[in-house]
Amino acid sequence: MTGSLVIAGLGPGSDAMVTPEVTGALARATDVVGYIPYVARIAPRAGLVLHASDNRVEMDRATAALRMAAEGRHVVVVSSGDPGVFAMASAVFEALEPHPEWHGLDIRVLPGITAMLAAAAAAGAPLGHDFCAINLSDNLKPFDLVLKRVRLAVEADFAMAFYNPRSRSRPDQFGHVLEVLRGVCTPERLVILARAVSTPEQALRVLPLCEVTPEMADMRTVVIVGSSATRRVGGWVYTPRSA
Amino acid sequence: MTGSLVIAGLGPGSDAMVTPEVTGALARATDVVGYIPYVARIAPRAGLVLHASDNRVEMDRATAALRMAAEGRHVVVVSSGDPGVFAMASAVFEALEPHPEWHGLDIRVLPGITAMLAAAAAAGAPLGHDFCAINLSDNLKPFDLVLKRVRLAVEADFAMAFYNPRSRSRPDQFGHVLEVLRGVCTPERLVILARAVSTPEQALRVLPLCEVTPEMADMRTVVIVGSSATRRVGGWVYTPRSA
């Protein structure tokens, strides 16, 4: 019996941003595995088992999904956004590493619209030229490394997208990053705070750096900081192609 | 008569990666505007005018699209990948800037799967942690700025995605970037060359930096360079979440 494992991106929230190949993979699945709010987006049907698990158990979830695929099930691991950007794909490959008996499994990664692309589209085109994406969470890496990357990104004059800027268990990170930015950028540098983008709760703010406060971000927010060339036109924000 | 302008991402090539909101916008369009090979992906139908134009006329194309929308047409500007990543969205906002009479137009940007996300998914999860995207073309910016960004990105230990690494008119850029990388990275640093990803011509190579040569890339290739932590597991390449 030959199983399969698909790691699929559901996009940032709207079903209108789920790609047909992800919808197709879900239609063929015997099992869907993921964090509770993402699995909640999948319609139940006969023959489909939904395995919803809590946050911060990514490795257990990944190993369970691999085991089910090895047993012949057709498993889809769901992520929000793109599974390869601060999401489940890396966790699955990390879980695969110590299990050579599973290395021949039929595994596919299906990309999705990651939050920064949806946030950028909602604001205009702030990532219209060279940019970087940094996960501000220090759950798995030292926070000094985050701050070093922010400093170098400013020096390179990248536009920047920050994932996981702030949560209840990490209330201070975004404030520290803002301090670094204020030390090296002008007060007018444009910042976009995009919360729950593409969902009915979407809230988008565009502010100069000097007006941004840490509590404007939470775990559902992606923050985009423009490059030195990022500017407004009408109600939009964009980074010129020559930036 | 109220027109509209949608700037839509068609994804990297496969129709299975076109989001339903983009498909819906195309179904409602009176006019589709874009570079010849992208417009060629749109099925003709009664009531739809296709406006295909050559490469390097982005500003003319953007202005024409804005003018048609101002005249009451429902215009979709198509880009490959995501329109906000090295594509048409910035050009449209740049063309909008000198025309305040158009600033109130109904404009929307619809994100798409950008090439680096599709390439990363095909390879595993090489962008699984902090990363940057750099356009190697010097059509609109000095090449010294590109090389500076590459150096700083290595110092930050980002995974890197390079767009437009090499073309007939710019045959040398990718070679210069490889020289910079060889000066600062180990010879084993993993490089992914993903050509025409998600199309029938897809070709994916994973090589250590020391084996990469400039002619392995062309204008249909996106190049992903791993961080120092990027590694192989089975046939896959991934960057650990702790990187």
From TrEMBL, chains A, B:
<dbReference type="GO" id="GO:0030789">
    <property type="term" value="F:precorrin-3B C17-methyltransferase activity"/>
</dbReference>
<dbReference type="InterPro" id="IPR035996">
    <property type="entry name" value="4pyrrol_Methylase_sf"/>
</dbReference>
<keyword id="KW-0949">S-adenosyl-L-methionine</keyword>
<dbReference type="InterPro" id="IPR014777">
    <property type="entry name" value="4pyrrole_Mease_sub1"/>
</dbReference>
<keyword id="KW-0169">Cobalamin biosynthesis</keyword>
<keyword id="KW-0489">Methyltransferase</keyword>
<dbReference type="InterPro" id="IPR051810">
    <property type="entry name" value="Precorrin_MeTrfase"/>
</dbReference>
<dbReference type="InterPro" id="IPR014776">
    <property type="entry name" value="4pyrrole_Mease_sub2"/>
</dbReference>
<dbReference type="InterPro" id="IPR006363">
    <property type="entry name" value="Cbl_synth_CobJ/CibH_dom"/>
</dbReference>
<keyword id="KW-0808">Transferase</keyword>
<dbReference type="InterPro" id="IPR000878">
    <property type="entry name" value="4pyrrol_Mease"/>
</dbReference>
<dbReference type="GO" id="GO:0009236">
    <property type="term" value="P:cobalamin biosynthetic process"/>
</dbReference>
<dbReference type="GO" id="GO:0032259">
    <property type="term" value="P:methylation"/>
</dbReference>
<dbReference type="Pfam" id="PF00590">
    <property type="entry name" value="TP_methylase"/>
</dbReference>
<comment type="pathway">
    <text>Cofactor biosynthesis; adenosylcobalamin biosynthesis.</text>
</comment>
<feature type="domain" description="Tetrapyrrole methylase">
    <location>
        <begin position="5"/>
        <end position="211"/>
    </location>
</feature>
<protein>
    <submittedName>
        <fullName>Precorrin-3B C(17)-methyltransferase</fullName>
        <ecNumber>2.1.1.131</ecNumber>
    </submittedName>
</protein>
